[in-house]
C-alpha cells in the first residue's frame, strides 16, 4: 500500500508575485497583487518559467495524492535576476538658447533591475562623426507621476540640426536605444514644454502633481486646461510657481485630459496628461466556516463597479473583533 501510494504522489507548487514592487530600488514601474499560480511535478524539482525579470516571488510546496492535497510547506521568497532594461519610453528635444538644447525622457516601462545610469548620445544630423556620450545618474521618484529626466546639451552651433537618443543601463549592461529626436539651437527660442505627458492612473482621494516644465525666450506664459476648460480658481487645484499643477483629494469627477499650454512671442507648445481616477472596489461577499479553535474566512474576487478597464487589487485587509 505504501509503494502504491508513493507512485501516485505529486507535488503542487504555488507561486505568487509579491505585492511589494521594490526589491532594491524601483524594481519595476508596476505594482502587482498577490495572485497564486499552481504548477505540478512528478519529481521533487520544477523549473518555473515565464517569470518577470528582477522580481520577488513567494513559493510553497504541497504533496498531492489520490487522497487530496496535503499541507503546504513554509513559504520561501526568491528573486529572479536582473537583465538589461528596455529603451527609455519617450524622448523630447527642445531648443533652450542659441547654443543649447534640452533633452527629456521617461524611464523604461520595464527597468528589469536597478538602473545604474542613462547614456545620452548627441551627434550633428547628416554627419559621419560618431556621437558624443553623456552619462546621467537616474533620479529617484519625486512623487510626481512621471519619472522624467532632463539634460542640457551645451556648446552647440546655432541653426545646426542635432540628433539625440538615450539608453538605460543596469549592472548587467546597456539596453536598447530610444527613438531619435532632432532639433536645432536658435536665436529666437520658441516656447517649448519638456515635460512628458501620457496616461496617469491614480487612486481616488489621493493627491497628484502634474509638471509643465518649459523653456523659451521671452519666458513663456502657461495656462492649464481640464477637458478644454481653463483652470482658474478651484479648491482642489493649485498652480505652483514652477507652472506645475497640484490636485488634492482627487475623485472621479476630476478624471479627464489635463493640458498645459506654454506660449511666447515665437510660438507655443503643450503637454497633455490623460488622468484616470480609479474608483473604490465593491465590498467582498464573505463566507465563514467555523472550526474548533479557528474560523476560515473566504471571499470571491472583487470587481470594480462601473469601470470599463478593471485594475488589479493590491491587497485585502481583514478586520475582526472578539
CATH architecture of one domain: Sandwich
Helix content: under 10%
- Rg (C-alpha, Å): 26 Å
Overall spatial form? flat
Total count of helical runs of at least 4 residues:
1
CATH superfamily membership of one domain? Immunoglobulins
Structural class: mainly beta
Report the average pLDDT across residues.
84
CATH class of one domain: Mainly Beta
How much of the sequence lies in strands comes to 35-45%
SSE succession: HEEEEEEEEEEEEEEEEEEEEEEEE
Number of strands: 24
- CATH fold assignment of one domain: Immunoglobulin-like
Write a structural description.
With 322 residues, the chain is mainly beta. Among the domains are: 78 residues, Immunoglobulins (Immunoglobulin-like, Sandwich); 105 residues, Immunoglobulin-like (Sandwich). 2% of the residues lie in helices and 43% in strands. The protein contains one helix and 24 strands. Strands 1, 2, 3, 4 and 5 form a five-stranded antiparallel sheet that branches. Strands 14-22-21-17-18 form a five-stranded mixed sheet, with no helix packed on it. A four-stranded antiparallel sheet has the order 9-8-11-12, with no helix packed on it. β3 and β4 form a beta hairpin. The longest helix has 6 residues. The N terminus is likely disordered. One of its GO terms (biological process) is cell-cell adhesion. Keywords: Disulfide bond, Repeat. This is Down syndrome cell adhesion molecule homolog.
Amino acid at each position: 500500500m505504501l509503494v502504491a501510494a508513493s507512485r501516485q504522489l505529486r507535488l503542487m507548487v504555488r507561486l505568487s508575485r509579491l505585492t511589494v514592487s521594490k526589491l532594491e530600488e524601483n524594481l519595476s514601474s508596476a505594482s502587482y497583487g498577490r495572485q497564486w499560480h499552481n504548477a505540478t511535478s512528478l519529481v521533487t524539482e520544477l523549473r518555473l518559467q515565464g517569470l518577470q525579470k528582477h522580481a520577488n516571488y513567494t513559493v510553497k510546496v504541497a504533496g498531492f495524492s489520490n487522497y487530496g492535497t496535503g499541507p503546504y510547506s513554509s513559504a520561501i521568497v526568491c528573486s529572479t535576476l536582473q537583465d538589461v532594461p528596455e529603451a527609455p519610453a519617450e524622448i523630447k528635444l527642445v531648443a533652450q538658447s542659441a547654443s543649447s538644447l534640452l533633452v527629456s525622457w521617461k524611464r523604461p516601462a520595464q527597468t528589469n533591475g536597478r538602473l545604474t545610469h542613462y547614456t545620452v548620445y548627441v551627434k550633428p544630423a547628416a554627419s559621419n562623426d560618431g556621437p558624443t556620450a553623456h552619462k546621467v545618474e537616474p533620479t529617484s521618484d519625486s512623487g510626481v507621476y512621471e519619472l522624467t529626466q532632463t539634460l542640457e546639451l551645451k556648446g552647440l552651433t546655432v541653426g545646426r540640426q542635432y540628433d539625440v537618443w538615450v539608453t538605460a543601463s543596469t549592472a548587467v549592461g546597456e539596453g536598447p536605444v530610444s527613438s531619435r529626436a532632432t532639433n536645432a539651437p536658435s536665436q529666437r527660442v520658441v516656447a517649448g514644454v519638456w515635460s512628458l505627458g501620457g496616461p496617469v492612473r491614480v487612486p481616488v482621494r489621493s493627491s497628484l502633481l502634474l509638471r509643465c516644465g518649459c523653456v523659451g525666450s521671452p519666458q513663456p506664459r502657461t495656462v492649464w486646461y481640464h477637458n478644454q476648460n481653463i483652470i482658474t480658481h478651484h479648491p482642489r487645484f493649485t498652480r505652483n510657481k514652477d507652472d506645475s499643477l497640484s490636485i488634492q483629494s482627487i475623485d472621479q469627477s476630476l478624471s479627464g485630459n489635463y493640458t498645459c499650454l506654454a506660449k511666447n512671442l515665437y510660438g507655443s507648445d503643450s503637454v497633455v496628461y490623460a488622468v484616470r481616477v480609479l474608483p473604490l472596489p465593491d465590498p467582498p461577499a464573505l463566507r465563514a466556516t467555523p472550526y474548533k479553535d479557528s474560523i476560515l474566512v473566504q471571499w470571491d474576487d472583487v470587481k470594480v463597479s462601473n469601470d470599463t478597464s478593471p485594475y488589479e487589487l493590491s491587497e485585502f485587509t481583514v478586520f475582526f473583533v472578539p
